[in-house]
Write the structure tokens for this entry.
Amino acid sequence: MKYRSTRGQTDELPFMDAILTGQAPDGGLFLPSELPDFSDKLDSWRDLSYTELAFEIMSVFANDIPQDDLKEIIEKAYSTFRDDEITPLAPAGKNLILELFHGPTLAFKDVALQFLGRLFDYILEQRDLKLNILAATSGDTGSAAIYGLKDSERVHVFVMHPHNRTSKIQAMQMCTVNQKNIHNIAVEGSFDDCQGMMKDIFNQLDFKKQYDLGAVNSVNWGRLLAQTVYYFYAYFRATENNQQKLSFSVPTGNFGDIFAGYLAAKMGLPIKKLYLATNENDVLCRAFDTGIYKKGTVHHSVSPSMDIQLASNFERYLFYSCGQDATKLRSLMEEFKAKGELHYDISCELIEAKRCDTETTLATIKNYSEENDYVLDPHTATGVHVADLLAPDEQIVCLATAHSGKFPESIKLACGEVIGNHPILDALSEDDMKYQVADAHTETIKSIIVKTLEEA
Ligand SMILES: *Cc1c(COP(=O)(O)O)cnc(C)c1O
């Protein structure tokens, strides 16, 4: 299978090259040139284990990797999960909670980054290459990337997080991994500063090339591919036969997770609705209501991983909504760059979007804990609220993107006390933290990268 850029000005690449490249050189994002139709596979897939199913799906997309090697990559990736089902379903009230947080860092990003880590190892070994990952994080991506890559011999990981502005647990998760290839940079600035510097550095193509810089944010196709698997898996567990239709609710920030569901539907999974939930940062809700995608200012909420005003994967969705016309997509993105907004065709039956503000998020956590004895994390709670609002009489699969134990401050705000914590998080200690503080200047970050790699 070949991968093309949404902006149509990059040559098509095989899977492994698209993974290593991350963002396409023309500024676009990679998508398969053609999506497979899995409709007539569903019957034979219903009873597969998670990793067997992952192999069936991924082998179609990663057909430049020998099958036995791909199997081993998948097995290794998911051997770090603490639940045999990898992504089990838990009933809570009328809904089924799809628990995506049984990986090492207790958030759904592990599902993709454990896989991407093993995949990078494999490709780099095959090609005798090295890679230096630069990431900016508001919390969850950083720790998932660190845990996905900490044992990779050919990879160094530089993670910038805003100093003293992530949650304490998130900072401890990132900064207590004491491995030679992991470098935490606490930036005296905001998450936007970190992200801005990352983009700056990636745009300096000579520097990027000289230091073999790569990215693990959700523009990487490998992350989306790994995430389509749990939509299929959950469907088979939640339904009795393949004629049934099923709806999902998805807490959304960068539009990566929900886009994986959109792809699953396009590949023949009988999805009825995808309910898109945002917090106060509702740029996507407004887009799906009005057909105008317009950036606003970031509000800090109790679901910080969704405090995003620029959903990078939305470009992939737009590409399909323009009838896969790269020229049209390019002109939309130019319109956005020039005016800070773009207008597109919203006729989408599949996705319905609603926002859930902080007050409602906290109330949902409290209600679910009291009525269903289930503690939702604040991100998951936004999706559960939207599912209950838009489909009050229907069983919905609600994606649980993090374990409640990661956000004790919010759980206390909601319930009056900290409940639903996790022993792995309780065992973290501030004394073990290792990081360097840096000012928010691109040159400072570049010199840290250069110096670290010289000394490595
Ligand atoms: C990253 C993240 C999200 C948002 O996912 P997107 O793919 O960016 O839409 C939601 N919840 C949690 C806990 C996350 O870490």
